[in-house]
Write a structure and sequence with these properties.
This protein is mainly beta. Among the domains are: about 90 residues, Immunoglobulin-like (Sandwich); about 80 residues, Immunoglobulins (Immunoglobulin-like), CATH 2.60.40. It is about 15% helix and about 35% strand. The protein contains 1 helix and 15 strands; from the N terminus they run βββββββββββββββα. β2 and β3 form a beta hairpin. It is elongated. The C terminus is likely disordered.
Length: about 240
């Protein structure tokens, strides 16, 4: 795993000589240890990361990176200047997986929803999904690497995704619920415009009222009383004969 230590053993100084440790297909070693002089030399970028414990006969490379993956060969040059192989060992450095996001996207038709997971690290096994702890609904579709799951928009529930490799495992979940149908863009724009205009009119009217109130604090609404006009009766006098 990235960040762990690599141990390469077999460096026992019994008969003297010099040990050489390097990558299998590289010409020059990155470590030399002279048993007679008890002197250690390191080269390239391994110098600050490599320690040798002579009592255990092991070399330790600290903080392993993915670039450290490969085959290592340990050799010894004896006092007669003869080189022989002590051992060859292979290491595969894997970065642990970590989910960075899990999102859902509704299709343009509104009939399907796609769930997509994004993660860091090396994927060694396909991504797995469940819904409410059980199998996925019928008609679902998975992308090539299973990082995208497509279901019907009505397939509500809690979806759980799992990403694993040989050194780690990570989980995330997302719940799909029923939501109101989306409002079309044109209708939404018209509704927003009407709302803004109504708010502006109310603001203007309120400002006018406040201004009049400040200029004439004693003004009171006047009520006109409608008084009915007095009814007059016309009398005609007739002379009696």
């Amino acid at each position: 795993m990235v960040g762990s230590d690599l141990s390469l053993c077999g460096m026992t100084c019994v008969t003297g000589g010099m040990f050489l440790l390097g990558r299998l297909h590289e010409a020059a070693p990155f470590l030399e240890y002279d048993c007679d002089l008890q002197q250690l030399k390191t080269f390239n970028n391994y110098g600050h990361r490599t320690d040798v414990n002579i009592s255990s006969g092991c070399a330790v490379i600290r903080d392993a990176q993915i670039s450290d993956s490969g085959q290592y060969i340990l050799q010894i040059i004896d006092k007669d200047d003869r080189k022989s192989e002590v051992q060859t060992i292979s290491y595969s450095i894997v970065d642990k997986v970590s989910i960075t996001s899990l999102s859902s996207i509704l299709s343009n038709s509104g009939l399907t929803t796609s769930l997509r997971v994004q993660f860091t690290g090396e994927m060694e096994h396909p991504v797995t999904w469940t819904r409410d702890g059980e199998d996925l609904p019928e008609g679902h579709q998975l992308s090539e690497f299973n990082d995208t799951l497509t279901v019907r928009s009505t397939d509500y529930g809690t979806y759980r995704v799992t990403v694993t490799n040989s050194v780690s495992e990570d989980h995330a979940q997302l719940t799909l619920t029923a939501e109101p149908a989306p409002v079309s863009g044109r209708f939404r724009f018209s509704w927003i415009a009407v709302s803004i205009m109504a708010a502006a009119i109310c603001s203007v009217l309120l400002g006018v009222f406040i201004k009049r109130k400040m200029l004439n604090p004693d003004i009171k609404p006047q009520r006109e009383d409608i008084v009915a006009a007095p009814r007059t009766e016309r009398m005609e006098l007739t002379e009696s004969v």
